[in-house]
Amino acid sequence: MTAYKTLVKWGKESIEIEMDPSQGVDGLKQTLQARTGVPKDRMKIMPKSKGLWKGVLKDTQDLTALNLTGISPPIQMLMMGSATLPVEPVKKTVFLEDLPPEEAAKMVEPSGLVNLGNTCYLNSVTQCLRVIPQLRDGLKSYTPSSSNGASQQGQMHALLLKSLLSTMDSLDKSPNAISPNNLVMSTKMSFPQMAQTGPGGAPMQQDAEEFYSSIMGVCAGEMRGDPTLRAAFGGAKPSGEHLDGADNVIDAVFGLKMEETLTCDELTTTTTDKDDAMDTDANALVEPAVVSYDLHRKLVCNIQGGSDASSQVNITHIGEGIQLSLTGKLEKYSDALGRNAQWTRSQKIARLPPCLVVQFGRFYWKATPDSQDHAGVKCKVMKPVGFQSVFDVYEFCNDKVRKVLKVARDKALAEEEDRVAKKLRGEDVEDDKKEDAKMEEDDEEAAALQAALAMSVEPEQAPVGPGLPHEFQGLYELFAVVTHKGRDADGGHYMGWVKADNTASNGSDKKREKIADSEEDNDDWFVFDDDEVSPCKTEDILKLKGGGDWHMSYLNFYRAKK
User: Fold this and answer.
1) How far apart are alpha carbons 192 and 201 in whole angstroms?
2) Helices 120-129 and 181-190: crossing angle, nearest 10°?
């Protein structure tokens, strides 16, 4: 017989059951006893929906005689009684040991990667790349071109990408640490410099940034074409205006289009301002500014000196270091002067990516003219450089991008000011939000119509990059970090730090232990020390600024903040 969805109100609890009228009153009470622990003989069940019995439900009531099909679901009842019996679990208890490996991997902490001999550089970067969905979706749809099979290099690159995806998938499916044998082997085949060994034959430590840049270069060369781009962006390829010259997944996801302007310091630069043009001596030599565009896959935070290696600015924050790297002096030929002259270089971001990578200039090459071999030595900068969990790129963008971002930023600021004003007037902002949510639920069609109308009325904003959130404000949130520990630039140890998903695997809210002052600092992270994985918080990540022998950030991974 048909079972009817029933909602039983018991004190402050609402219990959902499936009521089968053929089982009678005894069957209904038996189900409620198992769910609540209230004995059957102490239950008092009364109707809330119209069309049921009157008063307290009697054991002699024939439930099949009721017109239950005429009652809008769920059928509502009220139960009274005290629980004195143990409650049976709603779901059968399943032990972790009894789950398949892929299911067990979802219930425990993420899996680590085994160190196969100074491969911490590879392990740390792989853990960070693993949580970038655009990259993984692009790798899943990647198929080597027919021309690759004819060259040895093409075959090695295809093997490298296949090994990278296989390693990521294995990490998702296994609750235990994975040994990245194929990935290490294909990396050393594709990049012979990473196969170097020391005097005793042991593998030498490699640079994590060099590995990251090398593997990004291979991905950019291989992951081309519309099918791969569509897969990386959820099935819809961004328009050419959004891509702005990016023809592969890496440049679309990580690429920054940089606008570089060169101005001659020894001459007057041409200008479009009429007043400035009138003030300029007619006999003065004029050198037009040189504007060019280039594609970068990361920003660099200079810590010691500027891009021209002559500045001695004291850098204490990531923003200062990036600004330093985007400006500098150089010597270049001047057509107006007919000789070399000093020029000022200035770079601005002309297109933003969904994922932004910042490299800290921790390592540099120092000349050793007094040494016997004059070979020089690689040194590490230990100076502390702070950063936040949210990075604002507005000041680093050109005027065109700023104009677009300012529209969304002004709108968000106005909404925040309105919220604060309501709070100061004593209006309950939370009640307003609940009322708005209720109205949306009551009339979803009207809300959808209103949203569509608003979108049609609002002027379409110029694109500033592919795959960015609607009304993007130029804010990026930190989600992964590669750190280096140790004073030796050619040694030390790399670790990966990755932000965790704060939602349980079954979709229910996960109660977190509050140990930080703010919700932002209380976000969960995992630190990957090769095969050892430990939990941590955002406040622990922000301590990775350097200044001692502790781990210090080397590569910061950011994603566009919604």
Assistant:
1) 15
2) 100
